[in-house]
Amino acid sequence: MITKLLVEIKEIESKIEALEIDKQELRKKVIAVMTEKGSALEIIDLPIGKFKMVKKQVANVTYSEEILKQRLGNKYKLVLDLDAKQLRNHKAEVLQALGDKLLDVGVISQNRVKAAVASGELAAGDFKGAFEKAVVDRLVITRIP
Asked: Are 43 and 51 in contact (CB under 8 A)?
């Protein structure tokens, strides 16, 4: 009985994964159509409700961890934030000593980078050549009451 239920759960999870992939592909197609039309806003009235779709460009910044580890030394911790995947992988160690383990489980946080530079703890020049900035499209769909 439990095995059968687990099989059903796993089948449903597999279907959900496939649907998420399909949904992401559809979102990409909507972005492409909106881009082609030169539209950043669409309001669509469906039988289930009215929806607003907004296409935005957001910046994705990817830092070079190795460059910044070498360049910042002990101050590297100032720009790290928790990474859920790494936290799960290092959970036992993190529970014992989170402070020093931040180097193993953390990811560079753009907000913490900005805060460290704004406070003067780090210089903006410390990050020169140690990150890439890319502008990507995002689609937000909300129901309009």
From this structure: yes
